[in-house]
Amino acid sequence: MHQAKDRFLLKRLVLAGCGVALTAAAALSISLLSGGASAASEKICLTGSLHFDYRSAESGPEKPWQTRPVRNANVELWGREGALGSARKLNTQALFTDVANGGFKACYTPERSRAMDMMWVRVSAESSRLWKVTNGKGATFTWNSPIQTAVSASRSLGTRRPRSGDMRAWHAFDTGNELWWKRGNPKSNCWSARETDDNECTELTMQWVSSAPSGTVYDPQHNTVHLTGDAPDSEHTVLHESAHFLQHRLFGGWFPQVTRCIRHWVDKASSETCAWTEAFADSAAAYVLGDYRYVGPNGIPISFAHGPTYDDGDTVQGNVGGSLLDLWRNVDGGTWNRTIALLSTHNISTFREYFTLRPTAHLVTDDKARQILRNHTINY
Ligand SMILES: [Zn+2]
């Protein structure tokens, strides 16, 4: 978007999976109770919460620091019962950080003794297998709690924070919730109703590389949003790029042949295909966040209201994005869900095609709808 490059990346990426290796310090060994079977084992839980600090581009160019819980992230409990075995993942059911406060609670009942040699909690910047944030090497960002040793009763770990250098990854991850919650798919947990098996959803990968100038690209070949530098400071930017993925999934893996789109601006003419796909991403971000603008990573907003700097017509993404938002909010009952359903059943290359197809999704194209478009200099 804007000053950032935003084009489809075709180069092949090598994603090497690697986990965080923890070196376990020698721990106190726990003396086993003789005839351990007679000792009633009790459940041991580690509780706490994970919050992250972030710079908020949505709050203005000074980007003040704010704090928020990490919501909906995968939680694992790791550890070992005896001093000699190797640590392993202990939980068998999926656990997530709490949506309200980033809280976690992970429990395990020792099998042979009354205590665990060591235990710790791992939170990943991934939610189920629906979206995740990886580093430049393709490893998912994780936070590991301090290792607890000789754990014979439940412990509270308090409110914790990820490494300061990882905060932007957690901000991007948490922002992913906002789009997933509003994806408008009544058929499955997947991003698109074209995918109906909850175990086979296409996952969105956001790859964030800190040591690069601010930039954003969606790579459809790998379902990957690339974010560099301070790009995650802007939730509009994270959501805009993620919405390219969403539209790609709504179209079932198809995407329009987009022209004249290597550089494009909200208020300037590009092409019908560029304006349509970029406007969908712009308006998705604004719809999800409940506003009427795009905010770049520098904290500078631009409104979708047609203004003096704007070019005219449906090759301008701001004109199309403003029209989409106005239709959803003022004609379509305050929701984009029927538009989402329309995109889940038709492959659409331009806004004109979309508008023409609206009646098939029981959406109007009457005088009121056309007047909304005229307010954005689009005359159909
Ligand atoms: Zn874009």
Q: How do the strands and helices of this protein lay out in sequence?
A:
Blueprint: E1 44-55, E2 65-69, E3 74-80, E4 88-89, E5 95-96, E6 103-108, E7 116-124, E8 126-127, E9 131-134, E10 142-144, E11 148-151, E12 155-160, H1 167-181, E13 204-209, E14 215-219, E15 224-228, H2 235-250, H3 272-289, E16 293-295, E17 301-303, H4 317-330, H5 337-343, H6 351-357, H7 367-375
Bound molecules: zinc ion.
Task: Please outline what is shown here.
With 380 residues, the protein is an alpha+beta fold.
Let me know the number of strands.
Answer: 17
What bound compounds does this protein have? zinc ion
Q: Provide the structure class.
A: alpha+beta
Largest sheet: 6 strands, antiparallel
Question: Could you tell me how far the N terminus lies from the C terminus, measured between alpha carbons in angstroms?
Answer: 27 Å
**Given the C-alpha coordinates, what overall shape results?**
elongated
Fraction of residues in helix: 10-25%
Any low-confidence stretches, pLDDT <50, length ≥5?
1-38
The radius of gyration is 24 Å
- Percent strand: 15-25%
Helix-strand sequence: EEEEEEEEEEEEHEEEHHEEHHHH
Number of helices: 7
Average pLDDT works out at: 90
